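Module 6 notes. Inverse folding takes a fixed backbone as the condition and produces residue identities as the prediction. Think of it as a translation problem where the source language is geometry and the target language is the twenty amino acids. Below is one complete input and output pair. Work through it position by position during the lab.
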């Protein structure tokens, strides 16, 4: 065993990473954001093609199955990927034990889900769901096979390689789906897209992380790791049970068609969230974990994350909410217009993303028990909202989600941020300028929208130009606005080159807290 430990020391030790924490974070953030931008382009085009080749009902069928399997999917790693990333010290023997636990549980989930295919089909009243469920169940085994390899790459902050794996997997699986849809495979093209993507991710991860686990054996310290994983898994279970209850209720009481409209609107917003939040979470989680014993640096770093997310997300969400109808018409086509009001409601909820770093703070501060109890309270509240909203169909469910997000924000921040380096006042301070500028931009767009709607195909480019000009224009009215904009756009590059001298833009920021 010692020889194995020595061979893989570069994967388990993080001392060399901490010595380059700033550069690792900046390089990782930039590489992931670049890869995500390319991935967004690669995914958006094919998804728009699929939306025209397939019917809303086809997306609804997949939504029925994934509404249930996604719940099990959040348990697939038992929270042990975060354990591997978050541990200060970890050994080859411990990671090997975690690997076999993840693989065994993934195999168990695959078996349970595939055996439940007829139950799922009976619940929704559609026999087509049997084959869909059995095929998608194979992804649980593939995820179990890759959990620890991905965690080791994240532990070493090799974010660029992880981003490339995701980007290539998305592109190849979407190309396969388009080919199958073109050949008339209908909803099966979406099924094999999911299976193919998991296969490509597994292959890419194993090729990138050259680590082979030892045979199953007991490992010291495993009990404590499993308890942390238990808390995280409990959070994932109750959170995603509540978040996927909407698809289950709509599929049961409204059918595949309405669920298809709802799922497509939610997926468009989720794609946006993934492009913005995934890079941040991937970089921030190991970085904040490394700073958890340094409250001042932790608070400053998180404040910069919230500020920069607000700068990007709030104006974008405002624009999407105002111009939801022309966007849906241009991107998906006339047959998807029922998704437009649902999309608008989800965009309004997206305004709160930057101000809600609850899970990230609790995980990186080791508050996993509190994280579970918070998720339980949130899940009960959201489930009740979904049940009430179901009476009004997809729009009612989307409205229930958005209203709950706004009502629950302050109480949940108070509960989650107690005894952490982060305060509600700090969150408000980080989002206040982006929020004010976004509100002013939204007012300008609302006043101009009647005239913009007369411009036909130019409505979207003209409205985008007006949005950027008004947002930046209002931002520059704030004291120091020009300096803040310069910091947002130039500071990561200056930090990367290590040349943020006293007379350079961004020099007044703490050089150890680069984003």
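Target side of the pair, the amino acids:
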């Amino acid at each position: 065993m010692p020889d194995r430990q020595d061979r893989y020391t570069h994967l388990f030790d993080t001392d060399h990473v901490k010595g380059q924490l700033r550069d690792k974070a900046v390089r990782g953030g930039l590489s992931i954001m670049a890869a995500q931008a390319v991935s967004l382009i690669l995914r958006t085009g094919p998804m728009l093609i699929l939306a025209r080749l397939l019917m809303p009902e086809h997306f609804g069928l997949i939504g029925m199955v994934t509404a249930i399997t996604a719940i099990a999917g959040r348990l697939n790693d038992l929270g042990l990927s975060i354990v591997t990333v978050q541990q200060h010290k970890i050994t080859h023997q411990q990671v090997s034990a975690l690997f076999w636990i993840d693989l065994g549980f993934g195999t168990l989930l695959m078996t349970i889900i595939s055996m439940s295919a007829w139950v799922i089909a009976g619940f929704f009243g559609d026999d087509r769901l049997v084959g869909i469920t059995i095929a998608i169940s194979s992804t649980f085994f593939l995820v179990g096979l890759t959990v620890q390899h991905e965690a080791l790459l994240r532990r070493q902050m090799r974010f660029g390689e992880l981003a490339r794996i995701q980007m290539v997997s998305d592109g190849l699986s979407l190309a396969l789906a388009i080919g199958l849809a073109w050949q008339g495979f209908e909803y099966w093209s979406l099924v094999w897209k999911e299976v193919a993507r998991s296969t490509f991710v597994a292959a890419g991860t194993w090729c990138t992380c050259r680590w082979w686990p030892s045979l199953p054996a007991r490992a010291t310290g495993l009990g404590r790791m499993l308890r942390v994983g238990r808390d995280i898994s409990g959070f994932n279970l109750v959170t995603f049970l509540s978040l996927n209850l909407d698809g289950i209720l709509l599929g049961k009481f409204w059918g595949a068609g309405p669920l298809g409209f709802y799922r497509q609107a939610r997926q468009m917003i989720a794609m946006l969230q993934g492009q913005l939040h995934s890079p941040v979470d991937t970089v921030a989680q190991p970085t904040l974990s490394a700073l958890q014993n340094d409250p001042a640096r932790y608070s400053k770093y998180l404040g910069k994350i919230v500020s920069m997310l607000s700068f990007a997300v709030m104006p974008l969400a405002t624009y999407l909410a105002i111009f939801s109808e022309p966007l849906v018409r241009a991107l998906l086509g006339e047959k998807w217009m029922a998704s437009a009001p649902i999309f608008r409601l989800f965009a309004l909820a997206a305004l709160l993303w930057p101000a809600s770093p609850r899970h990230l703070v609790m995980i990186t501060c080791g508050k996993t028990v509190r994280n579970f109890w918070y998720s339980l309270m949130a899940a009960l509240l959201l489930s009740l909202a979904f049940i009430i909203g179901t009476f009004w169909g997809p729009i009612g469910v989307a409205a229930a989600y958005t209203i709950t997000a706004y009502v629950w924000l302050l109480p949940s921040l108070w509960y989650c941020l107690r005894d952490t380096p982060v305060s509600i006042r700090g969150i408000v301070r980080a989002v206040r300028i982006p929020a004010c500028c976004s509100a002013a931009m939204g007012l300008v767009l609302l006043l101009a929208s009647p005239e913009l709607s007369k411009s036909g195909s130019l409505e979207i480019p003209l409205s985008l130009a007006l949005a950027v000009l008004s947002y930046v224009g209002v931002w520059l009215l704030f004291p120091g606005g020009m300096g803040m904009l310069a910091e947002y756009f130039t500071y990561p590059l200056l930090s990367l080159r290590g040349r943020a001298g006293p007379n350079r833009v961004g020099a007044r920021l703490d050089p150890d807290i680069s984003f």
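Reference fact for the lab report: The first helix runs from residue 2 to 7.
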